[in-house]
Amino acid sequence: MKNAVINGTGSYLPERSVTNQDLEAxxxxxxxxxxxxxxxxxxxVASEHETTSFMACKAAEKAVEASDIEANDIDLILVxxxxxxxxxxxxxxxVQKALKISKPIPAFDVSAACSGFVYAMDIARQYITSxxxxxxxxxxxxxxxxxxxxxxxxxxxxxxxxxxxVVLSASEKSGILASTLHALHDEEALLSYPNYATEPHKAFxxxxxxxxxxxxxxxxxxxxxxxxxDCHLQKSDINWLIPHQANIRIIQAIAKKLNLPMSQVxxxxxxxxxxxxxxxxxxxxxSIREQRIKRGELLLIESFGGGMTWGAMVIxx
Length: 317
Ligand code: COA
Hints:
It is a single chain. By secondary structure, the protein is of the alpha/beta class. The chain contains ten helices and 13 strands. The strands form four sheets. The chain has a five-stranded mixed β-sheet, with helices on both faces. Strands 8-13-12-11 form a four-stranded mixed β-sheet, with helices on both faces. A two-stranded antiparallel sheet has the order 2-3. Helix 3 crosses helix 4 and helix 7 runs parallel beside helix 8. The longest helix is centred in the last third of the chain and has 22 residues. The two termini are about 20 Å apart. Bound molecules: coenzyme A. Coenzyme A binds next to helix 2, helix 6, helix 7 and strand 12.
């Protein structure tokens, strides 16, 4: 059986950055409140032409460029997003067109909010390890700025836009070692983003932040134990934690649970905010390009989001 191995990565961030000071001028908030409660000081906000599909295509082009394959070698395209600019053609079909892939390979979007990238990576892994395909392009792309009520200070300061992509390839080498996914219907309406077509008056992200915070810390603590147990590894084997970037205090709590110093945690939240399904592939690409993460090292990725959905994955890079 072949393993699913990271072959190349890429990412895209919108040109415009919005600082906490910019928000202070429009909202009853402060740089200090946002930074101390969340760890965020600025976030990228997409301009009109920087749609979710545009950003997905840019990140995908870079990931293919960084890999040892050509776009036409790709057998499957998956785009994790909760903010598609079209329901169909899907974001994945847009990427297929942008990469000029002439074969009618399967391409579809994955909806699992902030956990979307971990979900899509797990799907890709199943396709590869079953021997069905050799190369999968997995992308997380989000325009969270278009899903926000910019007068709601409790949500609009938290999110940002961007995209990250990974080419996963079948290989004899070690790759994804274990993966675990979960979902449980959000009975309490802790996190939601209604469809504009059916609920136009409340088609923005709504969140009960404090309750989501507590749930995230508990659930993420459990899921990292579960995924490490699945691959018979110890916390001390992990070289890098690449967490979903929702709040620096949630990230610190998970690192503490893993006994990992923050120097072994990839943190991009300060200048990106929460980019939902794009946050892990953005952090992964950033740390690979900065040569922080090296081949052979053990990575733990984990995420939590609306649904509720959550998951974690151990990867030998
Ligand atoms: N600026 C200033 N004050 C703000 C504010 C802002 N942007 N947003 C909220 N406040 C106020 C609240 O109105 C509240 O005021 P009150 O005490 O007078 O009622 C006070 O700050 C505390 O609010 P609270 O929600 O208890 O703060 P918190 O410490 O829980 O921090 C979050 C809020 C949203 C930063 C935090 O709960 C969080 O990060 N939650 C998880 C979010 C998350 O991960 N979401 C995505 C999951 S994928």
